[in-house]
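User: Here's a chain of 244 residues. Predict its fold as tokens.
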Amino acid sequence: IDALYNTILLNGTHKASSIKVAEASKVIENAQRDLNISFVNELALIFDRMGVDTSDVIEAAGSKWNFIKYKPGLVGGHCIGVDPYYLAFKAEALGYYPQVIRSGRRVNDYMPHFVADKVVKLMIQKGHKILNSNVLVLGITFKENCPDIRNTKVVDVVHELAAFGCKVDVHDPWADPEEVMDEYGVQTFQDGSRLYDKKYDAVVLAVAHRQFTGIDFPKLTNGSNTVIFDIKGFLDQNIVDGRL
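Assistant: Prediction complete.
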């Protein structure tokens, strides 16, 4: 197998000493990313209480050569948010309860609730009645510019907003509406022209699809009274009311 892959991979292969080593390396690669993101997510929770912009802090810290830039956000998909549980399960089966891995997972799993709660608070500050308010969520896939909806945490944001009494529309030009409905029971639409059929009380940028650069935000909002929340740090900071 190693010889076969070496015929097609430009950078070659690394031959692990055993299948256990190979599997463990893949698991810790994703667990490490999960923990790094959980750290900046926790920073985002702290800085939100301080009234400090997390992205500005990370940008400033990044001026030091050995600082690794990670952005806060929702951790979904079939690898990063899943592999830590495999590692934790195996550790517990062997009699060890992993503290750091479990803690990172708790922080990341909390973020959809934080986002929804923050959006609702911003809406209240602008005088909106939350019950039956119109909220638009942009993106449902677990990452940008792909149709993959596996273990997407945007769904949790949608459900949280709906639980507050919001009427939530979800637009994603990449995701298959039938697949999303079958998997999560959430109705979505792909046609971008439908964005302007109504005015929204809040807009949540959840996934940084390239198509969203062309959205005319003034046409789908109620002017400055609409809350715009940017999970991905994708939009011009001057037009958003909040971001992670």
